[in-house]
Amino acid sequence: MKTNVPQAVGVRFSKGSRVYSFDASSIPGIEPWDFVLVETNRGKQVGQVVKLIQDYRPDGQEPLKPVLRRANAAELALNESIKMTSGNVLEFCKEWAKREKFLEVKFIGADINFDRSYLLLTYATATDERVDLKSLRSEIQSEFSIGNVEIKQLGPRDLAKAIGGIGSCGKPECCCKAHLVEFSSISIRMAKAQGISLTPTEITGMCGRLRCCMEYENDIYVENRKLLPKKKKKVMTPQGEGKVVEVFPMTLSVLVEIPEVGRRQFTRDQITYEDTPPTPQPAQQSGRKGKNRAVAAAAENEDEDE
Predict the structure, then answer these.
(1) Among 38, 91, 133, 292, which has the minimal tally of Cβ within 10 Å of its Cβ?
(2) 237-287, pLDDT tens digit by residue?
(3) Dist. CA 238–CA 197, nearest whole Å
């Protein structure tokens, strides 16, 4: 029996936010960049189609929620009006914090859904301690006639993504604000595997946590390290036998200390050593995430040899 596969589309509700999948089977001719009205777990929302999912597979998951229709001009205007109301809610919360002496609380954002039935209010504190804001919730419900108000505290990474800023590397906008949709687990071993200085200013971002960019080239570092000898390994070079003092995974080369010659750099195909691995193709950056275990293992082996 043939199963009808829905025409799935990816919809985003704000810049830099996650892309959610919806069923657009009832909307013929839908295209990327169309604004649509969709049904979510938090009520109706206006979002923008960012991609068509051609090979969507349900895999036993819950059915996708539907795209109700393309958003018309009146709905888009109403959505902009709701955004203005969100700004008013945020100002109301800031004034409330001053009045109630909650000076350690910084309100970051207020997002109201399209049918005004739900509000998500986000805040942060310098100490990351939780604050009792139940009285604020009731005042918002009374002042703005919103039934369901959720108040969420942001951690350092989410806070950096929300407010943005100049990246630690000098980019005009930090990665989490510019393009990262979700955060991955970053380990100090990643810095060791890539030969990055462990000085705090070198490995931490504006959020005070390990930089997300240390994951970008993990795959190529880990795979290329497997093709090279480790530090202190004895190797044979065109200029004689020596000991590896530095490894350069990105160029598939090593720096070798040769007695009476000094330090010389050689590529992988210029050296031989015990247990030399076969010569596969160098790793290419895949752009995928989630190989932290391999990175950790490579770093641990490196530490043991050192």
Answers:
(1) 91
(2) 999 999 999 999 999 999 999 998 999 999 999 999 887 776 665 555 544
(3) 31
Summarised one tens digit per residue, pLDDT across range 168-212 is 888 888 888 888 888 888 999 899 888 888 898 889 988 889 999
**Which residues contact residue 158 at a Cβ distance below 8 angstroms, ignoring those fewer than 6 apart?**
122
DSSP for 265-284? Answer: EEEGGG-B-TTPPP--PPP-
CB of 300 closer than 8 Å to CB of 188: no
Q: Distance between CA 148 and CA 42 in Å, rounded?
A: 9
Residues 6+ positions from 64 with CB-CB distance below 8 Å: 6, 8, 21, 22, 23
DSSP 210: B
Kind of pairing, strands 118-125 and 148-153?
Answer: parallel
How far, in Å, are 100, 107, 120, 254 from residue 89 at the CA level? 16, 10, 11, 59
Q: Residue 200: CB partners within 8 Å, gap ≥ 6?
A: none
pTM score:
0.71
Domains and CATH numbers, the chain: 8-71 (no CATH), 80-154 (3.30.300.20), 170-215 (no CATH), 218-305 (2.30.30.30)
- End-to-end Cα distance, the chain: 61
